[in-house]
Amino acid sequence: MKALCAAGIAIVCAATAAMGDGTPVSGDFYMVSRSDRNDFHGSHRIFQRPSADMRKVVYCARAYWVRARTVAWTQLQVDDGRIVRVEYNRGSGWRPICEDPERQVSLKDLGIALEPQQVMHSLDDHQEPQSFFDAFKKSFQDAGAAVIDQTYHSR
To answer: Which DSSP category does 120 fall into?
Structure first.
């Protein structure tokens, strides 16, 4: 019996050492929005590896990769009176691991000078948010190029 207890303690110690400061090392990480009564409202997944349409950010001294929409969504959730945290789930329930992410990363930190609502309403996750005037200018440039590329017979 003593050997079994010692083995159990060794396993717990090894698992704790593998996690270092107690922060999970694998699983799914999400930006989670909850009511003041801790009721789930919504979430955005955040990642530990880079991708073409994501930006590197740091929440509570840990690096993640997020979409600009996630940062905008976080701000909008807080503006609506919800509590947002980075939470972790490895299949056995949710564990909050970082409080107040909206105070740690903003759209401005990502080099985006738009309001959160504008970022959320951009058409494509893979497209950089742009100002109204930039989009307006681009629409005329694209339309003009289509007319120039046509031949006499295709008009």
So the answer is: H
Looking at 60-132, which runs of residues are DSSP E strands?
62-66, 83-89, 94-99
Q: Are strands 55-59 and 40-46 parallel, antiparallel or unpaired?
A: unpaired
Instruction: List strand residue ranges (DSSP E) for the chain, in order.
Output: 28-34, 40-46, 55-59, 62-66, 83-89, 94-99
DSSP-derived letter for residue 39 is: -
**What pTM was computed for the model?**
0.65
Three-class DSSP category at 122 = coil
Which amino acid would we find at residue 142? D
Place of tokens 């050997």: 3
Q: Over the chain (155 residues), what is each successive 10-residue block's mean pLDDT?
A: 47 41 65 96 94 94 96 98 94 91 97 95 59 60 52 42
